[in-house]
């Protein structure tokens, strides 16, 4: 196999010429993005540029005007109902603010996707939930707690456990460390990196957190002017000639992270 096709085989998510808009507000205009197997991609952009819109469009929660989306090589538009179901099961999502169901315990929250997609006996679902709780570093007692009884960091972990309920291969995280203190955020980043290493996950992380970008992301993509304006390593960002990218990656906060690295 030549190098180009080997690289193509490693593309788990491919977005081609994607246009999404609401009325006269075109949010994404012929945007292109590839995500490769096993990487942690950090997705950044100024507030309101369309990071959530892109994620929600890829997850088919929003309609697009044009463009193609392929996940694990399958074009959603051409997929059969069965293929779509199988693809859905390979995707895990952690929405901003955790978005756990408040009336359900942690264990019940984790079992929601299992009930939706699988037909398993309760004892097996309980065992699977126990394993996921352990995987994300929560104490076993967390299983029977309600979201209101958890700290912000525990909510994020519980939401991550739910995102991992079906053993996905590609996980979408929408600002996973927002609202956490720096130590909690660093621990969460470490957890994501560990899960990538041990489970072979591919991670798409929308974030404003410079620490996450510097410490765990293999590659960064910046959304601007309705497109992916630049993608690459931190070094590529530092060298990119754009006022927003410069002030974001070369600003005072970023410089202190580089200094302390
Ligand atoms: N359902 C919707 N209907 C109409 N407009 C929408 C909808 N969802 C998003 N928008 C618009 O799309 C644009 C991009 O919003 P989006 O939430 O994706 O930004 P973002 O980059 O995720 O911002 P932030 O970093 O603040 O979360 C905004 O102008 C927003 O008003």
UniProtKB/TrEMBL annotation:
Looking at the record's lineage, which domain of life comes first? Bacteria
Cross-referenced InterPro entries? AAA+_ATPase (IPR003593), ABC_transporter-like_ATP-bd (IPR003439), ABC_transporter-like_CS (IPR017871), P-loop_NTPase (IPR027417)
The protein's UniProt keywords, in alphabetical order, are:
ATP-binding, Nucleotide-binding, Transport
Output the Gene Ontology terms for molecular function.
ATP binding
> Per the database record, which ranges form the ABC transporter domain?
13-250
What family is this protein classified in? Belongs to the ABC transporter superfamily.
Protein's name according to its UniProt entry: ABC transporter ATP-binding protein
């Amino acid at each position: 196999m030549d190098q180009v096709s080997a690289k193509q085989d490693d593309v788990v998510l491919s977005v081609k010429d994607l246009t999404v808009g609401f009325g006269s507000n075109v949010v994404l205009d012929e945007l292109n993005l590839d995500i490769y197997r096993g990487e942690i991609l950090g997705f950044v952009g100024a507030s309101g540029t369309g990071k959530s819109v892109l994620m929600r469009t890829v997850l088919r929660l929003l309609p697009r005007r044009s463009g193609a989306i392929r996940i694990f090589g399958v074009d959603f538009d051409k997929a059969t109902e069965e293929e779509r179901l199988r693809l859905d099961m390979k995707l895990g999502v952690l929405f901003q603010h955790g978005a756990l169901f408040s009336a359900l315990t942690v264990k019940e929250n984790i079992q929601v996707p299992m009930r939706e997609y699988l037909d398993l006996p309760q004892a097996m679902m309980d065992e699977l939930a126990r394993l996921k709780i352990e995987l994300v570093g929560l104490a076993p007692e967390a299983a029977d707690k309600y979201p209101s009884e958890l700290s912000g960091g525990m909510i994020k972990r519980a939401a991550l456990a739910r995102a991992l309920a079906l053993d996905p291969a590609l996980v979408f995280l929408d600002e996973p460390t927002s609202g956490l203190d720096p130590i909690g955020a660093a621990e969460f980043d470490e957890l994501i990196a560990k899960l990538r290493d041990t489970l072979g996950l591919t991670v798409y992380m929308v974030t404003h957190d410079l620490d996450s970008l510097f410490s765990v992301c293999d590659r960064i993509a910046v959304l601007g002017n309705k497109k992916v304006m630049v993608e690459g390593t931190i070094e590529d960002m530092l060298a990119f000639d754009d006022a927003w990218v410069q002030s974001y990656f070369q600003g005072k906060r970023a410089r202190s992270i580089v200094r302390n690295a």
